[in-house]
Write a structure and sequence with these properties.
Elements lengths: L2 E5 L2 E3 L5 E8 L7 E7 L6 E6 L6 E3 L7 E6 L4 E6 L8 E8 L18 E5 L2
Parallel strand pairs: 2-10
Antiparallel strand pairs: 1-3, 3-8, 4-5, 4-9, 5-6, 7-8, 9-10
């Protein structure tokens, strides 16, 4: 059964960068779209970015477009999220999960597929 583990979070100053890593075990990622999602206290879950497997097409929320980059390495069973020019409003728990696709409507986590998450805090 597919299990996902996130890493790479931490405390960073505004304007800084972090790279999050989502590593899969138990199954291959080859056939799945994968997404990064975030949850901040008092806010709804937000779909940050998703990437398809076959053609590598991507989706980004408007709030991160131009600052974040998602990529994947199927051979390493890994999906990355490079986050640049971080802002305090990027603070939250970031988790990866299988997704239904890489569009606004399909960048939704499949139930039961998410990892535990990694905390990102952007603060001076």
């Amino acid at each position: 059964q597919l299990q996902l583990v996130e890493s790479g979070g931490g405390l960073v100053q505004p304007g800084g960068s972090l790279r999050l890593t989502c590593t899969a075990s138990g199954s291959t990622l080859d056939w799945y779209a994968v997404g990064w999602f975030r949850q901040a206290p008092g806010k709804d879950r937000e779909a940050v970015s998703c990437i398809k497997s076959r053609d590598g097409s991507t989706y980004y929320s408007d709030s991160v477009k131009g600052r974040f980059t998602i990529s994947r390495d199927n051979a390493q069973k890994t999906v990355y999220l490079q986050m640049n020019s971080l802002k305090p409003e990027d603070t939250g728990n970031y988790y990866c999960a299988k997704a239904y696709g890489a569009t606004y409507r399909l960048c939704v986590p499949e139930r039961g597929s998410r990892g535990q998450g990694t905390q990102v805090t952007v603060s001076s």
